[in-house]
Amino acid sequence: MAGVSRTRKVAALLCWLQTVLYAADGRRAAFTGSVDEPNPQATRVLLGGQAWHRWEGYVCQPGAALKVGLEPATAPKPHRSDGTSAGPQFAFISKLAVLQHECASLKDCQAFEVQTGTLYSSECDLATGSLLPEQHAVMYSRSLELLEQGEQPKIWPLPLEVSSGARSVTVSPAIGLTGDITSAQVQAAFARLKENTVDVHPLPPQASEGDLTEISVSIVDAKAALQLYVDESYELSIPGVVEGVRGPNAITISAQTVFGAVHALETLSQLIEFDFDSSLYVIGSAPWMIKDTPRFSHRGVLIDSSRHFQPVKSMLSVLRSMTYAKVNVLHWHIVDAQSFPVIVESHPELAQDGAYSKFERYSVQDVQHVVSAAETLGIRVMVEVDTPGHASSWCKSHPEVCPSPDCDSPLNPATNATFDLIEDIFTDFSHIFFEGLMHLGGDEVNTACWESVPEVSEWLQQNNFTANEAYMYFVNRAQEIARGLDKQVVGWEEIWNNFGTKLDPSTIIHQWLPGSTVGPEVVANGYRLLWSTDGVWYLDGLGVTWEDMYVADPCEGIDAAGCQRYVLGGEGCMWGETVDGSDIQQTIWPRLGAIAERLWSPASVNSTELAQPRIANFRCLLNGRGVAAAPYSNDMARSAPPGPGACLAQ
Question: What is residue 134's predicted lDDT score, i.e. its pLDDT?
Answer without folding.
Answer: 31
